[in-house]
Amino acid sequence: MPDLLLAVRNVRAGYGEAVVLDDVSFEVPSGESLAVLGRNGVGKSTLVLTIMGFTTLIRGSLVWRGEEITHLAPHRRPRRGLGWVAQEREIFASLSVEENLTVASRPGRWDLAAVFELFPRLAERRHARGHHLSGGEQQMLAIARALMTNPDLLLLDEPLEGLAPIIVEELTAAIRRMTGEQGSTLILVEQHADIALGLTEHVIVLERGKIVHRGRSRDTLREPVLLDRYLGLTLSDSPPASGP
Amino acid sequence: MISSFVGVLFDGFAYGMLLFLLSVGLSVTLGMMNFVNLAHCSFAMLGGYVTVTLMDRLGWPFLATLPVAFLAAAGASAALERVLFRPLYRASDLDQCLLTIGVVFVSVAGAAYLYGTVQQPVQLPGYLRRAVTLGSFRFPVYRLFLIGAALAVTVVLVAALECTRFGARVRAAVDNQRMARGLGIDVDGVFAVTFALGSGLAGLGGALAIEMVGLDPSFAFAYLIYVIIVVSVGGLASIGGSFAAAALLGISDMAGKYYVPQLGAFLIYLVMVGLLMWRPAGLFGRR
Ligand SMILES: Nc1ncnc2c1ncn2[C@@H]1O[C@H](COP(=O)(O)OP(=O)(O)O)[C@@H](O)[C@H]1O
Ligand SMILES: [Mg+2]
């Protein structure tokens, strides 16, 4: 039984009065990868933001390596080992590529040399300012920046969104290297269900703020009805169901 | 004619440098946390009174009082930040204005109580009271000193902001507070240090201002308006912007008082309105 890294227990959370997530529970053991799937607006980003401490948590708890972090200040969570790649990338525009990487770095396996090896493109652009990067470069930088904090768990929020196919391939390869040979633990939020299921071991599917399916990614890939129902992976757009 | 023009330019620039020292701290902290600190000039005034007190009552030399003015303002602001301001970071702009304007009233009343409402004189050392003559131009040494001090502060600030990890954290927090926190940067801590440094610079400015504009308890209000103009014209969190705006305002204020005395101090408001209509986010502003 591998160590339990993160446990999300009966979480109800949202923004102020607006409740988005309801009774969400799952666990992430060390060394495993979890895909979080679901259509636009079901609460995937809200889940990531809740783990990072940026939403209003109404009920439930977050447990990190056996310690409660439910009310821990957001900036202390990365110091415990949570790494976050935001959906909007949120590159610091007035910092250079290298400064973006080093501004919050912590010592560990991932240093400048290691992330430049993972993303050679960033090495070429190391002195460029954040706002001069293409979308693909920004995404690489966002991932590399999170890696530089040497997290034990990496939260990736739709890293492939809106990128050219060739960049998607490059990033997919990089993520595969992280989960595969490097054994990193990660939560991968995606709309590209087929790619995400190919990259991860386990999956949860969200629908209107609730978990409506959980299982092994490999098995889920062989469930066309489910994929169609919650993710609209084929053409039809059946009405959303309200339970598993 | 030419010599009066050069004189106005020089005096205006020196005055602008004073405004720069007084306002650069507010520019950075306002840009970073969106905290509306109207009490900024109270810290400047504190620096001024520290210098007056040390010189008058304890006989310290002028230059030796300057670091103390800086430290006193920085220390006082750090204490206030902890106790009074921090709980209001997420409050509305109006709440922040009300609280900090209250601090201004308290500081004005406190200064009047302790020192009376009269202008406080400073007796500058002889070498600062001289003037350098260059052809037909005469440059008072004190104003040269003021310009030199402001330029030195600018160089140090820019270097600290651009070349240190702390400076990168300040810029990251100004850019995107949530992401900075999400990477583990202690934004509140970075802000507290920046806030203290900015207030310290205001304190230094307040000490240096006495000779040029005088010091009495109304200082905290009188210069608030100038500082706010510099910050809004210069753009938030931009040292270059504050520098340019302060120089421009100092020169136009002097030029206005010299060439169109009927308008008096009104010219700078025209300049401000014009500049803000041209560039609403300020000269170098990003927001
Ligand atoms: N800052 C916010 N304030 C209020 N509601 C929000 C905010 N951000 C997102 N929402 C709402 O929360 C729901 C879930 O959004 P989100 O978590 O971004 O979905 P997803 O990432 O799955 O596309 C949506 O209905 C969205 O409108
Ligand atoms: Mg999202």
Key descriptive features of the protein:
heterodimer; A: alpha/beta; Rossmann fold; six-stranded mixed beta sheet; four-stranded antiparallel beta sheet; globular; disordered C terminus; B: mainly alpha; binds adenosine-5'-diphosphate; binds magnesium ion
Explain this structure.
The complex is a heterodimer of chains A (244) and B (287). Chain A is of the alpha/beta class and 244 residues long. In chain A, 32% of the residues lie in helices and 28% in strands. In chain A, the strands form 2 sheets. Chain A has a 6-stranded mixed sheet with strand order 6-7-8-3-9-10, with helices on both faces. Chain A has a 4-stranded antiparallel sheet with strand order 2-1-4-5, with helices on one face. Mean pLDDT of chain A is 89; it is low at 235-244. Chain B has a single domain, classed as ABC transporter involved in vitamin B12 uptake, BtuC. Chain B contains 12 helices and 2 strands; from the N terminus they run αααααββααααααα. Chain B has a two-stranded antiparallel ribbon with strand order 1-2. In chain B, β1 (131-134) and β2 (137-140) form a beta hairpin. In chain B, α1 (2-33) runs antiparallel to α9. The longest helix of chain B has 32 residues, at 2-33. Chain B is globular and about 60 Å long. Chain B starts with a helix and ends in a 9-residue tail after the last helix. The interface between A and B is medium-sized, with 23 and 19 residues. The complex binds adenosine-5'-diphosphate and magnesium ion. Adenosine-5'-diphosphate (ADP) is lined by residues 15, 18, 20, 38, 40-46 of chain A.
